[in-house]
Specification:
heterodimer, A: alpha+beta, 2 domains, 12 helices, about 50% helix, elongated, B: alpha/beta, four-stranded antiparallel sheet, binds adenosine-5'-triphosphate, binds magnesium ion
């Protein structure tokens, strides 16, 4: 009987493709939008992810994220170093600055000052040059998004910039996760950064801490807070803070939520209409099958197989479409590092299942209600 | 001429009756009105006979045989098919009973458009759980008996009305049901095809433990009947071996 069910479905090519298209389109809309949403808000944590070696971030109690930070007095570094369980602690500057390019354009950049001695605070991988270039005077390392933004189609190596009336020479490109705003990022030594950032008395943004026992980072953060009166967050907590900040302070969740809901509604509409039309067109055949001796249970199973088949094909196409989309745009800095978390295809699978279960159930009610004799009149 | 109506049937059902109806009444709702199409039909259909049911259009023939084959619930009365009180069965049991015991051909064939003639004819066997290819072979053999073996691979829309009707007949007979019910099985056929269908129905459906009821207007085949019943306005008015004047 299931074979017959499938033939009934594929025999009507127009509706079959309509159904597959409807499901594929909804899946694409839901999967793709959720993927962009998740990746985009994760950008709120890029500053934390780029410094993966820090177990704990220490900051002023009012600081909220890696980009929204209030400066600390430089004595904070020694206070943190004296807390038991701290393996190492290094200073970290993150500040906004304006840069004049060679052509005279003005560009807002983020200047990140990393520890002079250990270079902790620099992204792990370099695309061009090595981290050692920072030991040369006036050196900065630009991130790859900055390269495509400020120097499209050319190498930035050797380019001179003017920062706070100081000279800076780009000597390397870092492989970094872009920030939420895709700001150009310039990495330099802490001591150098102090010159690039317009001066106030306190310019230390964070103290980055390595724990003696990384598994105990949470306990260490609490101890640092108790003993120094500063705010201390573990890497994971601070990453989450950055994500929460984006969620709370932008319209992004709402906008994407609307698109995802639209995907679902479009799915229900297209699939619902086509599926119920398909069932209605076949109601006489289903009625004849019932009369001949096919139980309601078997008819339900036939419709489930029909729904399952279009569901699987449509869902597969939708997910493949999303993969191609992400892959096709992977060279675009906006989409750099985008990935599809496994939960998202699962969510769209559940959405597809709900769409089909809902429309299938509605369409089937008529079939199950028909008195077999009525189809022979 | 017609014999008087067999009133001895009224009372309990005889165990040897293939179909036995007692007080079968059926109402339909037409807007606010209730119309009674069958008025307390008491009938015994004997096994081993070819029974014809004739009557004017609208007299209730299709309604009566639908009730007899378990696809239309009577408003009142009981129907026993080979001793089983079919409307006392649960829904699923009744469906299963039809699948095992009843074959029918109605004026609407309702063939499945996307599968070929042989597979359409094989549907009851497939529904019974037979392997699809084996079922198809049996169906092809049945189509051959109906003289349309060469059409087995065609889709219903590629067939003429008479060919489609024979596919429906094959579907009704392929699982060798004990009761075969036909509504105008020869209406779309020429005389020789009609004869052929009737011969086949006799072969397949008329035996010791089987029964066959045919609704027909086709006076070309009246001579084949073992028994002819006349329905007028929902009542049996004639029961005999020949047709009364005017039918
Ligand atoms: N589902 C229904 N709803 C309303 N009225 C019905 C229904 N089924 C049958 N009727 C009515 O019952 C009467 C008998 O119908 P039925 O189909 O049994 O007649 P018939 O003898 O088979 O006629 P024909 O020779 O034209 O096929 C008709 O008046 C018809 O309008
Ligand atoms: Mg009729």
């Amino acid at each position: 009987m299931l074979w017959i069910a499938i033939r009934m479905l594929t025999g009507d090519a127009q509706k079959f493709y309509g159904l597959v298209f409807g499901i594929a389109f909804s899946t694409l809309l839901i999967t793709q939008q959720l993927t962009i949403f998740v990746n985009l808000i994760e950008r709120g944590a890029s500053g934390v992810y780029n410094v993966s070696s820090a177990d704990v971030w220490v900051m002023d109690p009012v600081s909220r994220t890696s980009d929204v930070a209030y400066a600390l007095p430089s004595t904070a570094l020694d206070k943190v170093r004296s807390v038991p369980g701290v393996e190492w602690a290094v200073p970290h500057i993150r500040a906004q600055a304006s840069v004049r390019t060679k052509d005279g354009d003005l560009e807002g950049v983020a200047v990140i000052g990393v520890d002079d001695a250990t270079l902790i605070g620099l992204p792990k991988r370099m695309i061009e040059g090595s981290s050692a270039v920072l030991s040369r005077p006036d050196s900065v390392i630009i991130d790859d998004v900055g390269t495509t933004r400020m120097f499209p189609g050319q190498s930035p190596i050797g380019e001179r910039l003017e920062l706070n009336d100081q000279r800076a020479v780009i000597r390397g490109i870092a492989d970094a996760i872009p920030s939420f705003t895709s700001t150009v990022v310039l990495y330099t030594k802490y001591s150098q950064a102090l010159n690039y950032v317009p001066g106030t008395r306190n310019r230390l943004s964070f103290v980055l801490v390595g724990a003696a026992d990384p598994a105990q980072a949470k306990a260490l953060a609490e101890r640092i807070e108790r003993e120094t009166g500063l705010k201390a967050r573990t890497r994971d907590e601070f990453a989450q803070d950055g994500i929460d900040f984006i969620i709370e302070n932008t319209g992004i969740p709402l906008n994407f939520g609307i698109t995802v809901a639209l995907g679902f509604i479009v799915g229900v509409a297209i699939v619902g209409l086509t599926f119920s039309l398909f069932i209605r067109d076949n109601i006489k055949q289903f009625g004849a099958l019932k009369a001949i001796g096919v139980t309601n249970r078997k008819i339900r199973r036939m419709v489930a197989v029909q729904a399952g088949l279009v569901g699987l094909i449509g869902y597969g196409l939708g997910v493949i479409g999303t993969v191609f989309f992400i892959w096709g745009f992977s060279s675009n800095p906006t989409f750099k590092g985008f990935y599809i978390p496994w939960q998202i295809p699962l969510v769209s699978l559940i959405a597809v299942f709900l769409i089909l279960a809902l429309t299938g159930w509605l369409a089937l009610r008529n079939v199950l209600k028909t008195e077999p004799a009525s189809v022979f009149r | 001429m017609g014999t008087p109506i067999d009133t001895s049937a009224i009372g309990g059902c005889k165990p040897e009756a293939a179909i036995c109806t007692r007080g079968v009444t059926r109402d339909f709702q037409a807007g606010q009105q209730t119309i009674t199409v069958l008025h307390g039909i008491d009938l015994d259909i004997r096994a081993g006979e070819l029974t014809f049911l004739v009557g004017e259009s609208g007299s209730g023939k299709t309604t009566l045989i639908s009730i007899m084959c378990g696809i239309l619930w009577p408003t009142l009365g009981e129907v026993k098919v080979f001793g089983t009180d079919i409307y006392q069965l649960g829904d699923t049991d009744l469906v299963e009973f039809r699948l095992q015991n009843i074959g029918f051909i109605f004026q609407q064939y309702n063939l499945i458009p996307s599968i070929d003639a042989a597979n359409n004819a094989a549907v009851p066997l497939i529904a019974q759980g037979m392997d699809r290819l084996e079922a198809r072979d049996k169906a092809v053999a049945m189509l051959e008996k109906l003289n349309i073996g060469d059409q087995a691979d065609k889709l219903p829309r590629q067939l003429s009305g008479g060919q489609q009707q024979r596919v429906a007949i094959a579907r009704a007979l392929v699982h060798e049901p004990r009761l075969v019910v036909c509504d105008e099985p020869t209406a779309a056929l020429d005389a020789s095809s009609g004869r052929r269908v009737m011969d086949l129905l006799r072969d397949v459906a008329v035996a010791e433990d089987r029964a066959c009821i045919i609704v027909t207007h086709d006076n070309r085949i009246f001579d084949l009947a073992d028994r002819i019943l006349v329905l007028e306005d929902g009542r049996i008015t004639h029961d005999g071996t020949d047709v009364p004047e005017g039918h």
